[in-house]
Amino acid sequence: MEISSKENTHFFSNNTVLPVDRSSFKSESSASKEKQSCCGGIKIFLGALSFVYFAKALSGSYLKSTITQIERRFDIPSSLVGVIDGSFEIGNLLIIILVSYFGAKLHRPRIIGAGCLIMSAGTFLIAMPQFFMGRYRYERFPSTINSTVSLSPCLQDKGQTPLSALEKSQAKINAGCEKEAGSSMWIYVLLGNLLRGIGETPIQPLGIAYIDDYAVEENAALYIGCVQTVAIIGPIFGFLLGSLCAKLYVDIGFVDLDGVAISPKDARWVGAWWLGYLIAGVISVLAGIPFWFLPKHLPKPESRKDSSTSSEHSKFIIEENKDQGTSSWQQAKLAEMAKDFLPSLKNLFGNPVYILYLCASIIQFNSLIGMVTYKPKYIEQQYGQTSSKTNFVIGLINIPAVAFGIFSGGLIMKRFGVGVLGAAKLSLGSSFFGYLLLLSLFALGCGNSEVAGLTVSYHGSKPMSDHEQALFSECNSGCSCSRNDWDPICGENGVTYVSACLAGCRASNGTGKNTVFFNCSCVGTSESPQSSSAVVGPCQKGNECPKMFLYFLVISVITSYTLSVGGTPGYILLLRCIKPHLKSFALGIYTLAIRVLAGIPAPVYFGVAIDTTCLKWGSKRCGGRGACRLYDSSALRYVYLGLTLVLGTVSIFFSVAVLWVLRKRSSPQDETLSANGERGACGTKSRKDNFVNSDQLIQSTYWPEKETRL
């Protein structure tokens, strides 16, 4: 149109056309320059925001990968680790309302930059206890330490050990108790994660709003989709970083590694968990630097300067030129908005589809967040895998499956023009088949490790019930052993013993990992009395475990993909079944409910349930219960998977209720029209209203903790 109009003026004008052409040329050149500066500025912001999303996703997933490391390092139960994990959500909730409201009126890029600094400070704070609480000490027999004194594990007579050696050992323990306050340093981990939550708060609302304000309208969905894609890549690197750090000993660089008597497969092993937090903190600092040099406002694209605002925009946002009016008018406007709050809340909660879907989401996220938080622990304890391998598998296999599932859900909706009723069916079907697949994992578990006195008796391999646990037997009755120690050895008979003393070993040779124990009265059997030696460390699980672990990985990946397919349709269902002017309010309530009722409590009560399956607790140096050393594999499987499935089943019932309400509201004609894109089941006007931009369904869909659907 512009070219044809210029051609007409050129043909129908005389000499006076030249000045007009020059001025129009100047205006076009200035407009093109403005467009270039606008595009350049928004792309710089897009790159910086993508890097921030990567940084926050990396640090968040790295925390998930270090759950078991933190538990062992600070000698705390799983329930307390759950509180630490939930502190991120608490920090986020503390200032989300203030940031969302006041942040939009201030310098948004600098607020995001400040948030990055706070986030990095919290990440550094998490790692700080490593440098103040001394070296990691685990239960171990003195002969596994480089020592010139040769001691018998089975102390038939305490006179075997020089009194001075015993006194020195006790003195060291008492001295260590003076520093045992370091065990309460998990509080700094909690506070650091709380700071992470506070620092992360402005990134999403202010960053996405900034892009939406200054990007060309048709490019906004693509830009937001790029940011969300990078947010999914972050957890992959987070778990891979967790895998790398878990291979390294916790005190690497501070102790002689040749003197470390435990291996990564030992329940006492703690990797260099702190190292990843230092790396993540540096990345967060670097990610925040560009925002301090970005402008408060960017020039708006020409296409958006004259466009009329949407109904939602005009209702809730006051333009700057109007803000310069009288304060009395503004107060009246604020009073009107406050007066509309309760009616809007009543309207929202009076929508049965919204309420039912909110309940379904809360319960489902309880299931998913709890499952994901303790998935590394489950794999380690159930299949005897190291923390390093577990994190590697989750990062390289599960998370890409989640990303592909999210993309597939959006692609299905775009390809087949799925309406609101179809979105509800797709979301329900995804959850149903996902949890059905999860049910099969009950059959893919490993049996308990054979541990004398805990899972099997000292004589033969008779399984023991809970009330029959007896660490002492005739074969070690002459030894002065402690029932609190956990320093496992593997006998030649394939049975693990809690300690060399409880195995009745009377001689040892070598130091560190190379220690070999001899003349172990509990290891020898009537069939092979000569098999009385043992080596440091627990025995490997049964031969069927590697095969079961492979099957578990296959089912887990398919389950992750299936559950993720329903995420996009469910989120679109949420958006399309509420009135347009209540959209932002509804999303805010939804996010708040998910964080408060799922993000915070789920890790805690999942941890409490998992603690009930512990067979052997570790002991702190100065007494008291430490971290769990051995779980009942069968009980852990039933508790972990059972709790996940029960919650998932309840959420499916709510999803069925959502579908029933939608079917009741829509007639057969409505369903036909919805498929053709003319009318939706929730009474929306047209397909254009239902699906503003098809690409946005694939690219920019977001819901809380999206990246944790593993």
From TrEMBL:
This is Solute carrier organic anion transporter family member. It is found in: Cell membrane. It is a multi-pass membrane protein. It catalyses: L-thyroxine sulfate(out) = L-thyroxine sulfate(in); L-thyroxine(out) = L-thyroxine(in); 3,3',5'-triiodo-L-thyronine(out) = 3,3',5'-triiodo-L-thyronine(in). Belongs to the organo anion transporter (TC 2.A.60) family. The keyword Translocase does not apply. It holds the Pfam family OATP. Residues 45-666 form the Major facilitator superfamily (MFS) profile domain. Residues 469-524 form the Kazal-like domain. Keywords: Cell membrane, Disulfide bond, Glycoprotein, Ion transport, Lipid transport, Membrane, Transmembrane, Transmembrane helix, Transport. InterPro entries: Kazal_dom (IPR002350), Kazal_dom_sf (IPR036058), MFS_dom (IPR020846), MFS_trans_sf (IPR036259), OATP (IPR004156). The chain crosses the membrane at residues 40-59, 80-104, 110-132, 220-250, 270-294, 354-372, 392-412, 424-444, 548-575, 587-610, 639-662.
